[in-house]
Write a structure and sequence with these properties.
The chain has one domain (about 5-105): Immunoglobulin-like. The protein has no helices and nine strands. It has strands at about 5-10, 15-20, 30-35, 45-50, 55, 60-65, 75-80, 85-95, 100-105. The protein is globular, with a radius of gyration of 13 Å. It starts with a strand and ends with a strand.
Length: about 110
């Protein structure tokens, strides 16, 4: 788990890069998270948090021309985690590639 910077998820599959205004991932506020996911095809994202709560990103889109040098395709995503606690972001590509990364909000 982590509160900022680059966070490794499923080895060789999923990375997250948090863009924070302070030193913590806020609960109840929108935050930008860049994602790198290997595999191919469309991407589906969700996050599971405290008590089994599930959220989807506010929005996300693919990015080209990045200088972030991790494997996979890159997306910019915006999330609002409604409560403090650990949230596991899950990614799945249509080719069956799956990854996850856990973050702590609040």
């Amino acid at each position: 788990m982590g509160a900022g910077g680059e966070i490794a998820g499923t080895p060789g599959v999923f990375w997250a890069l948090l863009f924070l205004r302070g030193d913590r991932l806020p609960a109840g506020e929108q935050v930008k998270i860049a994602l790198k996911v290997t595999g191919s095809g469309e991407l589906t994202l969700s996050a599971v948090g405290p008590g089994g709560a599930t959220v989807e990103p506010v929005s996300f889109d693919s990015h080209d021309g990045s200088t972030w040098t991790r494997p996979g395709d890159e997306w910019g995503s915006y999330w609002a985690f409604p409560t403090a606690g650990c949230w596991t972001l899950r990614a799945e590509r249509t080719d069956g590639t799956r990854g996850a990364v856990t973050l702590r909000a609040g």
